[in-house]
Protein backbone atom coordinates (compact mmCIF):
# COMPACT_ATOMS: atom_id res chain seq x y z
CA UNK A 1 0.00 0.00 0.00
CA UNK A 2 1.45 3.36 -0.85
CA UNK A 3 0.81 5.52 2.12
CA UNK A 4 -0.83 8.01 -0.03
CA UNK A 5 -4.19 7.09 -1.32
CA UNK A 6 -5.87 3.82 -0.88
CA UNK A 7 -9.11 4.17 -2.73
CA UNK A 8 -11.78 4.26 -0.19
CA UNK A 9 -15.16 4.99 1.07
CA UNK A 10 -18.31 3.86 -0.54
CA UNK A 11 -21.39 5.58 0.60
CA UNK A 12 -23.58 4.26 -2.12
CA UNK A 13 -24.31 7.44 -4.04
CA UNK A 14 -23.23 8.34 -7.51
CA UNK A 15 -21.86 11.71 -8.44
CA UNK A 16 -21.92 13.23 -11.88
CA UNK A 17 -18.19 12.48 -12.09
CA UNK A 18 -18.59 8.79 -11.33
CA UNK A 19 -17.59 6.33 -14.03
CA UNK A 20 -20.88 6.89 -15.77
CA UNK A 21 -21.06 5.66 -19.31
CA UNK A 22 -23.44 8.45 -20.09
CA UNK A 23 -21.01 11.18 -19.21
CA UNK A 24 -17.48 10.20 -20.15
CA UNK A 25 -14.95 12.29 -18.24
CA UNK A 26 -13.75 14.92 -20.62
CA UNK A 27 -10.50 15.18 -18.74
CA UNK A 28 -9.22 12.44 -20.93
CA UNK A 29 -9.08 14.65 -23.98
CA UNK A 30 -5.54 15.69 -24.73
CA UNK A 31 -6.58 19.27 -25.36
CA UNK A 32 -9.41 20.61 -23.28
CA UNK A 33 -11.12 23.45 -25.03
CA UNK A 34 -10.94 26.92 -23.68
CA UNK A 35 -12.79 26.96 -20.43
CA UNK A 36 -15.79 29.23 -20.11
CA UNK A 37 -14.62 29.85 -16.56
CA UNK A 38 -11.81 32.16 -17.56
CA UNK A 39 -13.41 34.12 -20.36
CA UNK A 40 -11.60 36.41 -22.75
CA UNK A 41 -9.56 38.61 -20.45
CA UNK A 42 -5.98 38.70 -21.67
CA UNK A 43 -4.62 39.76 -18.31
CA UNK A 44 -6.29 36.81 -16.60
CA UNK A 45 -4.76 34.43 -19.12
CA UNK A 46 -1.28 35.84 -18.69
CA UNK A 47 -1.56 35.64 -14.91
CA UNK A 48 -2.87 32.09 -15.08
CA UNK A 49 -0.02 31.08 -17.38
CA UNK A 50 2.54 32.65 -15.05
CA UNK A 51 1.09 30.82 -12.05
CA UNK A 52 1.05 27.55 -13.96
CA UNK A 53 4.66 27.96 -15.03
CA UNK A 54 5.66 28.66 -11.45
CA UNK A 55 3.84 25.58 -10.16
CA UNK A 56 5.11 23.33 -12.93
CA UNK A 57 8.73 24.37 -12.55
CA UNK A 58 8.54 23.93 -8.76
CA UNK A 59 7.14 20.44 -9.30
CA UNK A 60 9.65 19.45 -11.98
CA UNK A 61 12.64 20.87 -10.13
CA UNK A 62 13.23 17.88 -7.78
CA UNK A 63 13.26 15.42 -10.67
CA UNK A 64 15.48 17.75 -12.69
CA UNK A 65 17.95 17.91 -9.81
CA UNK A 66 17.88 14.13 -9.53
CA UNK A 67 18.65 13.64 -13.21
CA UNK A 68 21.34 16.34 -13.12
CA UNK A 69 23.06 14.62 -10.19
CA UNK A 70 22.86 11.22 -11.86
CA UNK A 71 24.74 12.63 -14.87
CA UNK A 72 27.72 13.78 -12.79
CA UNK A 73 30.82 12.06 -11.48
CA UNK A 74 30.84 11.34 -7.74
CA UNK A 75 33.40 14.12 -7.14
CA UNK A 76 31.30 16.69 -8.97
CA UNK A 77 28.11 15.58 -7.22
CA UNK A 78 29.64 16.33 -3.83
CA UNK A 79 31.41 19.53 -4.83
CA UNK A 80 29.72 22.37 -2.89
CA UNK A 81 31.41 25.07 -4.97
CA UNK A 82 30.25 24.02 -8.43
CA UNK A 83 26.93 22.54 -7.41
CA UNK A 84 25.08 23.28 -10.62
CA UNK A 85 27.47 22.69 -13.51
CA UNK A 86 29.92 19.79 -13.16
CA UNK A 87 33.57 20.62 -13.71
CA UNK A 88 34.37 17.44 -15.57
CA UNK A 89 31.26 17.46 -17.73
CA UNK A 90 28.32 15.08 -17.89
CA UNK A 91 28.57 11.31 -18.04
CA UNK A 92 26.32 8.27 -18.30
CA UNK A 93 28.78 6.14 -16.30
CA UNK A 94 26.65 6.13 -13.11
CA UNK A 95 23.77 4.58 -15.04
CA UNK A 96 25.93 1.85 -16.53
CA UNK A 97 27.45 1.13 -13.11
CA UNK A 98 24.00 0.72 -11.59
CA UNK A 99 22.75 -1.49 -14.40
CA UNK A 100 25.84 -3.70 -14.44
CA UNK A 101 25.62 -4.23 -10.69
CA UNK A 102 22.55 -6.26 -11.56
CA UNK A 103 20.30 -5.88 -8.54
CA UNK A 104 18.16 -3.11 -10.03
CA UNK A 105 16.99 -5.27 -12.96
CA UNK A 106 16.27 -8.05 -10.45
CA UNK A 107 14.14 -5.77 -8.27
CA UNK A 108 12.32 -4.49 -11.33
CA UNK A 109 11.61 -8.04 -12.38
CA UNK A 110 10.36 -8.87 -8.87
CA UNK A 111 8.16 -5.80 -8.75
CA UNK A 112 6.80 -6.55 -12.18
CA UNK A 113 6.08 -10.19 -11.30
CA UNK A 114 4.48 -9.33 -7.97
CA UNK A 115 2.41 -6.44 -9.35
CA UNK A 116 1.24 -8.51 -12.32
CA UNK A 117 0.22 -11.44 -10.15
CA UNK A 118 -1.56 -9.16 -7.68
CA UNK A 119 -3.37 -7.39 -10.51
CA UNK A 120 -4.51 -10.53 -12.34
CA UNK A 121 -5.69 -12.22 -9.14
CA UNK A 122 -7.37 -9.13 -7.72
CA UNK A 123 -9.23 -8.26 -10.91
CA UNK A 124 -10.37 -11.85 -11.53
CA UNK A 125 -11.48 -12.51 -7.97
CA UNK A 126 -13.11 -9.10 -7.50
CA UNK A 127 -14.98 -9.22 -10.81
CA UNK A 128 -16.42 -12.63 -9.96
CA UNK A 129 -17.42 -11.49 -6.49
CA UNK A 130 -18.88 -8.29 -7.93
CA UNK A 131 -20.96 -10.39 -10.30
CA UNK A 132 -22.12 -12.62 -7.47
CA UNK A 133 -23.20 -9.67 -5.35
CA UNK A 134 -24.84 -7.90 -8.28
CA UNK A 135 -26.54 -10.67 -10.23
CA UNK A 136 -27.12 -13.76 -8.10
CA UNK A 137 -29.07 -14.74 -5.04
CA UNK A 138 -27.72 -16.96 -2.31
CA UNK A 139 -28.14 -17.22 1.39
CA UNK A 140 -25.95 -14.77 3.29
CA UNK A 141 -25.34 -12.55 0.28
CA UNK A 142 -26.40 -9.34 2.00
CA UNK A 143 -24.40 -10.03 5.14
CA UNK A 144 -21.29 -10.94 3.16
CA UNK A 145 -21.57 -7.81 1.04
CA UNK A 146 -22.05 -5.63 4.12
CA UNK A 147 -18.92 -7.22 5.62
CA UNK A 148 -17.00 -6.49 2.42
CA UNK A 149 -18.06 -2.84 2.42
CA UNK A 150 -17.16 -2.49 6.10
CA UNK A 151 -13.72 -3.98 5.42
CA UNK A 152 -12.96 -1.07 3.11
CA UNK A 153 -12.26 0.92 6.27
CA UNK A 154 -9.58 -1.44 7.60
CA UNK A 155 -6.14 0.11 7.06
CA UNK A 156 -3.89 -2.70 5.74
CA UNK A 157 -1.00 -1.30 7.77
CA UNK A 158 -2.72 -2.57 10.89
CA UNK A 159 -2.73 -6.13 9.60
CA UNK A 160 1.03 -6.47 9.16
CA UNK A 161 1.63 -7.97 12.58
CA UNK A 162 -1.01 -10.73 12.24
CA UNK A 163 -0.06 -11.27 8.58
CA UNK A 164 3.55 -11.74 9.56
CA UNK A 165 2.69 -14.52 12.01
CA UNK A 166 0.19 -16.00 9.59
CA UNK A 167 2.84 -16.42 6.87
CA UNK A 168 4.93 -18.41 9.32
CA UNK A 169 1.89 -20.53 10.27
CA UNK A 170 1.05 -21.15 6.61
CA UNK A 171 4.68 -22.05 5.93
CA UNK A 172 5.08 -19.47 3.17
CA UNK A 173 7.16 -16.88 5.02
CA UNK A 174 9.71 -15.16 2.78
CA UNK A 175 8.25 -16.35 -0.53
CA UNK A 176 6.57 -14.64 -3.48
CA UNK A 177 3.26 -16.04 -2.24
CA UNK A 178 3.66 -14.25 1.07
CA UNK A 179 4.25 -10.94 -0.71
CA UNK A 180 1.40 -11.43 -3.19
CA UNK A 181 -1.53 -13.08 -1.42
CA UNK A 182 -2.42 -10.53 1.27
CA UNK A 183 -2.38 -7.78 -1.38
CA UNK A 184 -5.08 -9.51 -3.43
CA UNK A 185 -7.84 -8.80 -0.92
CA UNK A 186 -9.36 -5.56 -2.20
CA UNK A 187 -12.87 -5.07 -0.81
CA UNK A 188 -13.07 -1.64 -2.41
CA UNK A 189 -12.58 -3.16 -5.88
CA UNK A 190 -15.36 -5.68 -5.24
CA UNK A 191 -17.57 -2.77 -4.21
CA UNK A 192 -16.67 -0.73 -7.31
CA UNK A 193 -17.24 -3.64 -9.69
CA UNK A 194 -20.50 -4.61 -8.01
CA UNK A 195 -21.79 -1.07 -8.49
CA UNK A 196 -20.53 -1.10 -12.04
CA UNK A 197 -22.39 -4.34 -12.83
CA UNK A 198 -25.49 -2.87 -11.19
CA UNK A 199 -25.32 -0.02 -13.70
CA UNK A 200 -25.31 -2.30 -16.75
CA UNK A 201 -28.69 -2.88 -18.42
CA UNK A 202 -30.11 -6.36 -18.00
CA UNK A 203 -31.75 -6.74 -21.41
CA UNK A 204 -28.72 -8.31 -23.08
CA UNK A 205 -28.22 -11.01 -20.50
CA UNK A 206 -31.92 -11.78 -20.45
CA UNK A 207 -31.68 -12.50 -24.16
CA UNK A 208 -28.72 -14.77 -23.47
CA UNK A 209 -30.64 -16.46 -20.64
CA UNK A 210 -33.52 -17.26 -22.97
CA UNK A 211 -30.96 -18.87 -25.26
CA UNK A 212 -30.04 -21.12 -22.36
CA UNK A 213 -26.83 -19.43 -21.15
CA UNK A 214 -25.85 -20.12 -17.54
CA UNK A 215 -24.23 -17.72 -15.08
CA UNK A 216 -20.74 -18.40 -16.36
CA UNK A 217 -21.66 -17.68 -19.97
CA UNK A 218 -23.50 -14.49 -19.00
CA UNK A 219 -20.55 -13.34 -16.91
CA UNK A 220 -17.86 -14.27 -19.42
CA UNK A 221 -19.48 -13.49 -22.77
CA UNK A 222 -21.93 -10.72 -21.97
CA UNK A 223 -20.91 -8.68 -18.92
CA UNK A 224 -17.11 -8.84 -19.10
CA UNK A 225 -16.86 -7.61 -22.70
CA UNK A 226 -19.14 -4.71 -21.75
CA UNK A 227 -16.93 -3.92 -18.78
CA UNK A 228 -13.53 -3.66 -20.43
CA UNK A 229 -12.97 0.06 -19.65
CA UNK A 230 -13.92 -0.44 -16.01
CA UNK A 231 -11.78 -3.56 -15.65
CA UNK A 232 -8.87 -1.68 -17.21
CA UNK A 233 -9.38 1.19 -14.77
CA UNK A 234 -9.38 -1.16 -11.81
CA UNK A 235 -6.34 -3.05 -13.15
CA UNK A 236 -4.31 0.13 -13.66
CA UNK A 237 -5.08 1.28 -10.15
CA UNK A 238 -4.27 -2.06 -8.54
CA UNK A 239 -1.05 -2.35 -10.54
CA UNK A 240 0.23 1.10 -9.52
CA UNK A 241 -0.59 0.34 -5.90
CA UNK A 242 1.17 -3.02 -5.95
CA UNK A 243 4.19 -1.71 -7.87
CA UNK A 244 4.71 1.05 -5.30
CA UNK A 245 3.71 -0.86 -2.17
CA UNK A 246 6.39 -0.60 0.45
CA UNK A 247 5.45 -1.68 3.96
CA UNK A 248 4.22 -5.24 3.43
CA UNK A 249 6.96 -6.31 0.95
CA UNK A 250 9.47 -4.71 3.31
CA UNK A 251 8.16 -6.66 6.31
CA UNK A 252 7.47 -9.95 4.56
CA UNK A 253 10.77 -10.48 2.72
CA UNK A 254 14.25 -10.85 4.07
CA UNK A 255 15.70 -12.73 1.09
CA UNK A 256 17.45 -10.10 -1.10
CA UNK A 257 16.45 -12.12 -4.18
CA UNK A 258 12.77 -11.45 -3.41
CA UNK A 259 13.06 -7.70 -2.83
CA UNK A 260 10.76 -5.50 -4.87
CA UNK A 261 11.90 -2.18 -6.30
CA UNK A 262 10.73 0.11 -3.46
CA UNK A 263 12.33 -2.16 -0.87
CA UNK A 264 15.53 -2.81 -2.81
CA UNK A 265 16.45 0.77 -3.57
CA UNK A 266 16.04 1.81 0.04
CA UNK A 267 18.29 -1.06 1.09
CA UNK A 268 20.91 0.30 -1.31
CA UNK A 269 20.69 3.71 0.29
CA UNK A 270 22.09 2.20 3.43
CA UNK A 271 24.88 0.40 1.59
CA UNK A 272 25.99 3.18 -0.76
CA UNK A 273 24.71 6.20 1.11
CA UNK A 274 27.59 8.55 0.34
CA UNK A 275 27.60 7.95 -3.41
CA UNK A 276 25.05 10.56 -4.28
CA UNK A 277 25.40 10.39 -8.05
CA UNK A 278 25.02 6.63 -8.13
CA UNK A 279 22.10 6.77 -5.69
CA UNK A 280 20.33 9.26 -7.95
CA UNK A 281 21.05 7.13 -11.03
CA UNK A 282 19.39 4.22 -9.21
CA UNK A 283 16.41 6.34 -8.18
CA UNK A 284 15.90 7.81 -11.65
CA UNK A 285 16.09 4.39 -13.31
CA UNK A 286 13.63 3.06 -10.74
CA UNK A 287 11.27 5.95 -11.50
CA UNK A 288 11.42 5.34 -15.22
CA UNK A 289 9.03 2.40 -15.84
CA UNK A 290 5.83 3.94 -14.48
CA UNK A 291 6.62 7.40 -15.85
CA UNK A 292 7.13 5.87 -19.30
CA UNK A 293 3.90 3.93 -18.97
CA UNK A 294 2.18 7.15 -18.00
CA UNK A 295 3.52 8.94 -21.08
CA UNK A 296 2.07 6.26 -23.34
CA UNK A 297 -1.20 5.62 -21.51
CA UNK A 298 -1.87 9.04 -20.03
CA UNK A 299 -5.48 9.04 -21.09
CA UNK A 300 -6.33 5.67 -19.53
CA UNK A 301 -4.42 6.35 -16.33
CA UNK A 302 -6.03 9.73 -15.78
CA UNK A 303 -9.42 8.13 -16.27
CA UNK A 304 -8.58 5.21 -14.03
CA UNK A 305 -7.56 7.47 -11.17
CA UNK A 306 -10.58 9.69 -11.62
CA UNK A 307 -13.02 6.78 -11.51
CA UNK A 308 -11.41 4.16 -9.29
CA UNK A 309 -9.65 6.53 -6.94
CA UNK A 310 -12.92 7.74 -5.54
CA UNK A 311 -13.90 4.23 -4.57
CA UNK A 312 -16.87 4.32 -6.90
CA UNK A 313 -18.41 7.39 -5.36
CA UNK B 1 -17.90 -32.06 -1.28
CA UNK B 2 -18.48 -35.36 0.47
CA UNK B 3 -22.13 -36.30 0.52
CA UNK B 4 -23.78 -35.93 3.89
CA UNK B 5 -25.26 -38.99 5.62
CA UNK B 6 -28.79 -39.82 4.45
CA UNK B 7 -30.42 -38.84 7.74
CA UNK B 8 -29.12 -35.30 7.51
CA UNK B 9 -30.60 -34.89 4.08
CA UNK B 10 -34.22 -35.59 4.84
CA UNK B 11 -35.18 -32.00 5.65
CA UNK B 12 -33.55 -30.26 2.69
CA UNK B 13 -34.53 -30.19 -0.92
CA UNK B 14 -32.27 -32.16 -3.27
CA UNK B 15 -31.16 -29.00 -5.15
CA UNK B 16 -29.43 -27.76 -2.02
CA UNK B 17 -26.75 -30.40 -2.24
CA UNK B 18 -24.63 -28.35 -4.63
CA UNK B 19 -23.47 -24.85 -3.78
CA UNK B 20 -25.62 -22.11 -5.28
CA UNK B 21 -23.88 -20.59 -8.34
CA UNK B 22 -23.75 -17.15 -6.73
CA UNK B 23 -21.74 -18.48 -3.83
CA UNK B 24 -19.40 -20.25 -6.24
CA UNK B 25 -18.70 -16.92 -7.97
CA UNK B 26 -18.03 -15.19 -4.67
CA UNK B 27 -16.03 -18.09 -3.25
CA UNK B 28 -12.49 -17.21 -4.46
CA UNK B 29 -12.84 -13.74 -3.01
CA UNK B 30 -14.45 -14.98 0.18
CA UNK B 31 -11.64 -17.49 0.75
CA UNK B 32 -8.96 -14.81 0.36
CA UNK B 33 -11.05 -12.37 2.36
CA UNK B 34 -11.48 -14.85 5.19
CA UNK B 35 -7.83 -15.89 5.16
CA UNK B 36 -6.15 -12.51 4.90
CA UNK B 37 -8.69 -10.11 6.39
CA UNK B 38 -11.12 -11.74 8.79
CA UNK B 39 -8.67 -14.20 10.31
CA UNK B 40 -5.87 -11.62 10.85
CA UNK B 41 -8.40 -9.19 12.32
CA UNK B 42 -9.65 -11.85 14.72
CA UNK B 43 -6.13 -12.99 15.50
CA UNK B 44 -5.05 -9.40 16.11
CA UNK B 45 -7.93 -8.93 18.50
CA UNK B 46 -7.01 -12.13 20.33
CA UNK B 47 -3.32 -11.19 20.44
CA UNK B 48 -4.20 -7.81 21.89
CA UNK B 49 -5.58 -9.65 24.91
CA UNK B 50 -2.40 -11.69 25.41
CA UNK B 51 1.28 -11.08 26.02
CA UNK B 52 2.19 -12.64 22.65
CA UNK B 53 5.70 -11.89 21.47
CA UNK B 54 8.04 -12.79 18.62
CA UNK B 55 10.09 -14.91 21.03
CA UNK B 56 9.12 -18.50 21.54
CA UNK B 57 7.09 -18.73 24.72
CA UNK B 58 3.36 -19.46 24.54
CA UNK B 59 1.19 -16.37 24.89
CA UNK B 60 -1.00 -16.19 27.94
CA UNK B 61 -4.26 -14.32 28.35
CA UNK B 62 -3.89 -11.02 30.19
CA UNK B 63 -7.27 -9.42 29.59
CA UNK B 64 -7.28 -5.69 28.93
CA UNK B 65 -3.81 -5.08 30.38
CA UNK B 66 -2.36 -4.11 26.97
CA UNK B 67 -5.08 -1.53 26.43
CA UNK B 68 -4.65 -0.17 29.93
CA UNK B 69 -0.91 0.12 29.36
CA UNK B 70 -1.40 1.80 25.97
CA UNK B 71 -3.73 4.45 27.40
CA UNK B 72 -1.05 5.38 29.93
CA UNK B 73 1.83 5.13 27.44
CA UNK B 74 3.29 8.58 26.81
CA UNK B 75 5.16 7.47 23.68
CA UNK B 76 1.90 6.14 22.24
CA UNK B 77 0.15 9.46 22.81
CA UNK B 78 3.14 11.35 21.46
CA UNK B 79 3.23 9.31 18.24
CA UNK B 80 -0.54 9.61 17.89
CA UNK B 81 -0.10 13.37 18.24
CA UNK B 82 2.45 13.33 15.39
CA UNK B 83 0.03 11.42 13.19
CA UNK B 84 -2.77 13.91 13.90
CA UNK B 85 -0.43 16.86 13.38
CA UNK B 86 0.73 15.43 10.06
CA UNK B 87 -2.88 14.85 9.04
CA UNK B 88 -3.81 18.44 9.81
CA UNK B 89 -0.72 19.99 8.20
CA UNK B 90 -0.86 17.82 5.09
CA UNK B 91 -4.59 17.79 4.35
CA UNK B 92 -4.98 21.56 4.06
CA UNK B 93 -2.29 22.13 1.40
CA UNK B 94 -3.02 18.83 -0.34
CA UNK B 95 -6.59 19.95 -0.97
CA UNK B 96 -5.93 23.67 -1.55
CA UNK B 97 -2.92 23.29 -3.87
CA UNK B 98 -4.69 20.56 -5.85
CA UNK B 99 -7.67 22.86 -6.33
CA UNK B 100 -5.42 25.72 -7.44
CA UNK B 101 -3.59 23.51 -9.93
CA UNK B 102 -6.81 22.10 -11.35
CA UNK B 103 -8.41 25.55 -11.75
CA UNK B 104 -5.31 26.79 -13.56
CA UNK B 105 -5.03 23.78 -15.86
CA UNK B 106 -8.75 23.88 -16.57
CA UNK B 107 -8.42 27.37 -18.04
CA UNK B 108 -7.47 25.53 -21.22
CA UNK B 109 -4.08 27.15 -21.64
CA UNK B 110 -1.87 25.34 -24.16
CA UNK B 111 0.40 22.52 -23.03
CA UNK B 112 -2.22 20.44 -21.21
CA UNK B 113 -0.22 17.22 -21.19
CA UNK B 114 2.88 18.99 -19.85
CA UNK B 115 0.98 20.38 -16.86
CA UNK B 116 -0.64 17.04 -16.17
CA UNK B 117 2.66 15.22 -16.39
CA UNK B 118 4.41 17.76 -14.13
CA UNK B 119 1.78 17.56 -11.40
CA UNK B 120 0.87 13.90 -11.58
CA UNK B 121 4.20 12.18 -12.39
CA UNK B 122 5.49 12.32 -8.78
CA UNK B 123 2.45 10.30 -7.67
CA UNK B 124 3.66 7.43 -9.84
CA UNK B 125 7.02 7.18 -8.08
CA UNK B 126 7.61 4.43 -5.55
CA UNK B 127 8.11 5.82 -2.06
CA UNK B 128 11.69 4.54 -2.14
CA UNK B 129 12.50 6.83 -5.06
CA UNK B 130 10.71 9.75 -3.42
CA UNK B 131 12.68 9.34 -0.21
CA UNK B 132 16.06 8.94 -1.92
CA UNK B 133 15.36 12.05 -3.98
CA UNK B 134 14.23 14.19 -1.05
CA UNK B 135 17.04 13.02 1.23
CA UNK B 136 19.36 14.38 -1.43
CA UNK B 137 17.35 17.58 -1.98
CA UNK B 138 17.38 18.21 1.78
CA UNK B 139 21.04 17.25 2.24
CA UNK B 140 22.38 20.11 4.43
CA UNK B 141 25.72 20.78 2.68
CA UNK B 142 25.16 19.57 -0.87
CA UNK B 143 21.39 19.47 -1.36
CA UNK B 144 19.57 21.68 -3.87
CA UNK B 145 17.40 23.56 -1.41
CA UNK B 146 20.21 24.83 0.76
CA UNK B 147 22.15 25.78 -2.38
CA UNK B 148 19.15 27.80 -3.52
CA UNK B 149 18.78 29.44 -0.11
CA UNK B 150 22.48 30.23 -0.21
CA UNK B 151 22.13 31.75 -3.67
CA UNK B 152 19.70 34.35 -2.30
CA UNK B 153 21.88 34.96 0.74
CA UNK B 154 19.99 32.89 3.32
CA UNK B 155 21.40 30.38 5.78
CA UNK B 156 20.93 26.69 5.11
CA UNK B 157 18.31 24.72 7.03
CA UNK B 158 18.85 21.39 8.77
CA UNK B 159 15.70 20.11 7.07
CA UNK B 160 15.46 16.64 8.52
CA UNK B 161 17.56 16.90 11.66
CA UNK B 162 16.04 20.00 13.24
CA UNK B 163 13.08 19.06 15.43
CA UNK B 164 11.18 22.24 14.61
CA UNK B 165 11.54 21.76 10.84
CA UNK B 166 11.49 18.00 10.21
CA UNK B 167 7.71 17.56 10.24
CA UNK B 168 7.27 20.47 7.81
CA UNK B 169 9.94 19.01 5.56
CA UNK B 170 8.06 15.70 5.49
CA UNK B 171 4.80 17.50 4.74
CA UNK B 172 6.48 19.36 1.86
CA UNK B 173 7.84 16.15 0.33
CA UNK B 174 4.42 14.51 0.74
CA UNK B 175 2.69 17.46 -0.91
CA UNK B 176 5.02 17.17 -3.89
CA UNK B 177 4.56 13.43 -4.06
CA UNK B 178 0.79 12.99 -3.79
CA UNK B 179 -0.95 16.24 -4.72
CA UNK B 180 -1.28 15.04 -8.33
CA UNK B 181 -3.91 12.53 -7.30
CA UNK B 182 -6.24 15.14 -5.82
CA UNK B 183 -5.44 17.38 -8.78
CA UNK B 184 -6.77 14.77 -11.20
CA UNK B 185 -9.94 14.29 -9.16
CA UNK B 186 -10.58 18.04 -9.18
CA UNK B 187 -9.87 18.23 -12.89
CA UNK B 188 -12.48 15.55 -13.61
CA UNK B 189 -15.00 17.37 -11.42
CA UNK B 190 -14.34 20.68 -13.19
CA UNK B 191 -14.93 19.09 -16.55
CA UNK B 192 -18.26 17.74 -15.39
CA UNK B 193 -19.68 21.20 -14.60
CA UNK B 194 -22.37 21.81 -17.25
CA UNK B 195 -21.50 24.58 -19.73
CA UNK B 196 -24.96 26.11 -19.65
CA UNK B 197 -24.34 27.46 -16.15
CA UNK B 198 -21.45 29.54 -17.49
CA UNK B 199 -23.40 30.56 -20.56
CA UNK B 200 -26.25 31.85 -18.44
CA UNK B 201 -23.81 33.73 -16.23
CA UNK B 202 -22.13 35.26 -19.28
CA UNK B 203 -25.48 36.54 -20.51
CA UNK B 204 -26.03 38.11 -17.10
CA UNK B 205 -22.67 39.83 -17.54
CA UNK B 206 -20.83 38.06 -14.70
CA UNK B 207 -17.04 38.47 -14.84
CA UNK B 208 -14.49 35.69 -14.55
CA UNK B 209 -13.99 36.27 -10.83
CA UNK B 210 -17.71 36.27 -10.20
CA UNK B 211 -18.15 33.04 -12.17
CA UNK B 212 -15.40 31.38 -10.13
CA UNK B 213 -17.07 32.28 -6.83
CA UNK B 214 -20.70 31.76 -7.73
CA UNK B 215 -20.52 28.81 -10.12
CA UNK B 216 -17.23 26.89 -10.09
CA UNK B 217 -16.52 26.70 -6.38
CA UNK B 218 -20.10 25.88 -5.31
CA UNK B 219 -20.27 23.21 -8.01
CA UNK B 220 -17.03 21.72 -6.65
CA UNK B 221 -18.10 21.73 -3.02
CA UNK B 222 -19.17 18.10 -3.00
CA UNK B 223 -15.93 17.00 -4.59
CA UNK B 224 -14.03 19.06 -2.04
CA UNK B 225 -15.84 17.18 0.70
CA UNK B 226 -15.01 13.82 -0.82
CA UNK B 227 -11.35 14.68 -1.46
CA UNK B 228 -10.95 16.01 2.08
CA UNK B 229 -12.40 12.80 3.51
CA UNK B 230 -10.13 10.62 1.40
CA UNK B 231 -7.11 12.77 2.24
CA UNK B 232 -7.71 12.68 5.99
CA UNK B 233 -8.08 8.91 5.94
CA UNK B 234 -4.93 8.57 3.82
CA UNK B 235 -2.90 10.98 5.95
CA UNK B 236 -3.86 9.21 9.17
CA UNK B 237 -2.07 6.14 7.82
CA UNK B 238 1.21 7.93 7.22
CA UNK B 239 4.29 5.79 7.71
CA UNK B 240 6.43 5.02 4.65
CA UNK B 241 7.90 8.41 3.84
CA UNK B 242 8.45 9.31 7.49
CA UNK B 243 10.23 6.04 8.14
CA UNK B 244 12.43 6.44 5.07
CA UNK B 245 13.21 10.16 5.49
CA UNK B 246 13.77 10.48 9.23
CA UNK B 247 13.15 7.04 10.75
CA UNK B 248 10.73 8.94 12.97
CA UNK B 249 13.49 11.23 14.23
CA UNK B 250 15.12 13.46 15.19
CA UNK B 251 14.53 12.27 18.71
CA UNK B 252 11.29 10.53 17.70
CA UNK B 253 9.80 13.96 17.02
CA UNK B 254 8.16 12.86 13.76
CA UNK B 255 7.38 9.21 14.59
CA UNK B 256 3.77 8.45 13.57
CA UNK B 257 1.66 5.93 15.45
CA UNK B 258 2.01 3.27 12.76
CA UNK B 259 5.77 3.42 13.11
CA UNK B 260 5.39 3.18 16.88
CA UNK B 261 3.39 -0.02 16.61
CA UNK B 262 5.92 -1.31 14.07
CA UNK B 263 8.72 -0.53 16.53
CA UNK B 264 6.86 -2.15 19.42
CA UNK B 265 5.97 -5.24 17.38
CA UNK B 266 9.05 -5.95 15.30
CA UNK B 267 11.87 -4.26 17.20
CA UNK B 268 10.49 -4.71 20.69
CA UNK B 269 8.99 -8.14 19.84
CA UNK B 270 5.78 -7.29 21.75
CA UNK B 271 3.16 -8.46 19.25
CA UNK B 272 0.32 -8.45 21.78
CA UNK B 273 0.93 -4.87 22.79
CA UNK B 274 1.36 -3.81 19.15
CA UNK B 275 -2.01 -5.41 18.35
CA UNK B 276 -3.69 -3.48 21.13
CA UNK B 277 -2.31 -0.21 19.75
CA UNK B 278 -3.47 -1.27 16.27
CA UNK B 279 -6.99 -1.67 17.55
CA UNK B 280 -6.96 1.66 19.35
CA UNK B 281 -5.80 3.30 16.14
CA UNK B 282 -8.44 1.44 14.15
CA UNK B 283 -11.08 2.81 16.52
CA UNK B 284 -9.79 6.31 15.72
CA UNK B 285 -10.02 5.65 11.96
CA UNK B 286 -13.57 4.38 12.37
CA UNK B 287 -14.47 7.44 14.40
CA UNK B 288 -13.04 9.75 11.74
CA UNK B 289 -14.93 7.87 9.02
CA UNK B 290 -18.20 8.03 10.95
CA UNK B 291 -17.84 11.75 11.58
CA UNK B 292 -17.06 12.44 7.94
CA UNK B 293 -19.86 10.23 6.75
CA UNK B 294 -22.27 12.24 8.87
CA UNK B 295 -20.94 15.53 7.51
CA UNK B 296 -21.23 14.37 3.91
CA UNK B 297 -24.75 13.12 4.49
CA UNK B 298 -25.85 16.40 5.98
CA UNK B 299 -24.38 18.38 3.12
CA UNK B 300 -26.17 16.07 0.71
CA UNK B 301 -29.50 16.78 2.37
CA UNK B 302 -28.93 20.50 2.22
CA UNK B 303 -28.32 20.53 -1.50
UniProtKB/TrEMBL annotation, chain A:
Record keywords: Cell membrane, Membrane, Transmembrane, Transmembrane helix, Transport
Subcellular location: Cell membrane
Lipid bilayer topology: Multi-pass membrane protein
Gene3D superfamilies named among the record's database cross-references: MetI-like
Chain spans, region Disordered: 1-37
Predominant subcellular localization, coarse grouping: membrane
Biased composition (Low complexity): 10-19
Transmembrane spans: 43-61, 107-131, 143-164, 176-193, 276-297
InterPro entries on file: MetI-like (IPR000515), MetI-like_sf (IPR035906)
Domain of life: Bacteria
Domain called ABC transmembrane type-1: residue spans: 108-297
Recorded family membership: Belongs to the binding-protein-dependent transport system permease family.
Name of protein: Carbohydrate ABC transporter permease
UniProtKB/TrEMBL annotation, chain B:
ABC transmembrane type-1 domain segment(s): 80-292
Membrane-protein topology: Multi-pass membrane protein
Chief place of localization: membrane
Domain of life where this protein originates: Bacteria
Matching Gene3D superfamilies: MetI-like
Record's signal peptide: none
Transmembrane segments: 21-42, 84-105, 117-137, 165-188, 220-239, 276-296
Subcellular location, record wording: Cell membrane
UniProt record similarity statement: Belongs to the binding-protein-dependent transport system permease family.
Stated name of the protein: Sugar ABC transporter permease
Species annotation: Streptomyces physcomitrii
